[in-house]
Amino acid sequence: MTMIIWNENFSIGIPDLDKEHKYLIDIINQLSESMTANHSRDTLPEIIEQLYDYIGTHHSHEEALMQKSNYPNFPNHHQEHKNFHNNIIELHKLYATDLLYAKNLLNTLQDWVINHICNIDREFGVFYNSKK
Description:
By secondary structure, the protein is mainly alpha-helical. It is built from four helices and no strands. The chain has helices at 15-36, 40-68, 74-96, 102-130.
């Protein structure tokens, strides 16, 4: 499996949020490593738990900054977060019924990094930094 290596292309220009995004990439890389070692079934419960913790903390933190800065696209961004959270809940349900494959979770997370963080979060970063 291919590891994601943090580089400035992932940065949204808000150091605290970038640090939290790096943590998500660490979770993704843990999953990828466990798949390579054929241990994903053993590591999925811990990875899903880390995701739940991450989502709750990170999205709350990010949305608080959006509200504080009067980010005009907050409603859409908030909906994106809710959709991602619901997607992780559905994947967890699949795990509980032995229907979740690690590859499904990995694809979901990689897609989130590429499409959400590198595009949608970056838009917020530009807005936020323009208000300083």
